[in-house]
Amino acid sequence: MTFSGWYNRSLNKIWGFVEDRTGMRKWALRPQPEFTFKPSYWTGAFVAVAFIYQIMSGMLLLLYYEPSVSITTTACGSGTGIAPAAWCSTYYIMHSVPMGTLLITTHLYGAYAMIFLLLVHFYRGYYLGVYKKPREFSWMVGALLLVVTLGMGFTGYLLPYNVLSYNATDVGINLAISLQIPLPGGIVFNAGALIAPFLLGNGTPQGLLSRMFWAHVLLLPLLLGALLYAHIALFESHGIAPPATSDPLQRRRFTEKEDKQHVPFVPHILWYMIKWGLLYLGILFAIAALWPWTLLTWYGNTAVPIPPIVPDWYFLWLFKLLDFQGVTPLIAVTIGTVILLYILFLPFLDRSKRTHPRDRPVFVYLGTCMIEVMIILSVWGQLTPGVQILPPQVYETLVPTFLVNAIVIAGLHWRYRTSYRRRLAASRSAGYGGIYAPSTANPAHPAPNAAEVRALE
User: Fold this and answer.
1) What is the pTM of this model?
2) Which of 116, 140, 202, 384 is packed most tightly, with the most Cβ within 10 A?
3) In which domain, by residue range, is 277 found?
4) CA distances in angstroms from 327 to 106, 121, 312, 335, listed in the order given
């Protein structure tokens, strides 16, 4: 017997004993097929691990952080003079709390990692078509999770109350309160006027900091937790999405009988996730130890030059959009809103029954364009913050990128479709049922005729 076989059998015996003595046989998540034991199938679990660490590290930071702009000398350290309490408490964490710099750095980098992993999880689902029936609502909940996570990053950026975080937050708030929604009949709904009181409070710096603090530590975490619960509940209902396929007759969920033949969540999948979770924490702590975060001077300190206003990397593309000549805050917010609505209602826009990316060239092209715009504008914003970009520069940079993207995707799609009928006919004649059925001849699934092929296309 191999070590792997002995190990799995031992785990089954141990967990079987636990289930028998506790009577808790239904509490764990549903079993999963063996082919899912790859990191690419558990990108969502990585996001959950990152979220759990953010909660734990955030609770430790709350023991020392003071959300106040009142001027104080307490805990500000030698040579720093007087400063706002929010900045001073951050300074105290980094210089007086044991391993405080590591704690606050891992919390910051953990937020970056969570957003990055969420984007990886999003684009994996986007390209593999996991949003198709019956998982439309699961996709929409996931899209809202992405929005709330970005909101967590935005609200947390202000809390150190340094000069860069305050100015960047101020620009972001100005974007939010400039939101106007055109309605039929020439009517313009000023949504920004409704948003402003929730973000600004009484209009003072203390009001702004208080709103950002409570949104970051209470409101948004509760909303994020509720959405995460809904996302997991929908996952439990439908199970993991099957591999992408060109067969429109492929089933989209496992049966109860098939579930029983798969690997149980506890203990096998749980141990698998713990292994990757520990690797994530190891990498996070190593990066934080090698490149610790540096606290800039507090907002309002006129003795230090103000650095260029640069937000965190996940909003950098939107901030750089404001540097394009002719782009107003309203236009920038409108572009962001259109992208969000496209992502949210994607399951109802892509009505194809196929999930393979090469069968969906238009949506693959649009998704790749979104990645390209985000990367190009982010790099542009990091290299030239606050520098105005003229229309000829925009055309020279973006248009060739979009054209090359279109040519490559169109070429791959044409090459793929030339063999589609042959592959579909061979699959149907052999009685292939995807990952759910053996590849043996099946009289119930004869090879499709020409009319069936046209209907499936």
Assistant:
1) 0.84
2) 140
3) 33-250+259-306
4) 36, 31, 21, 10
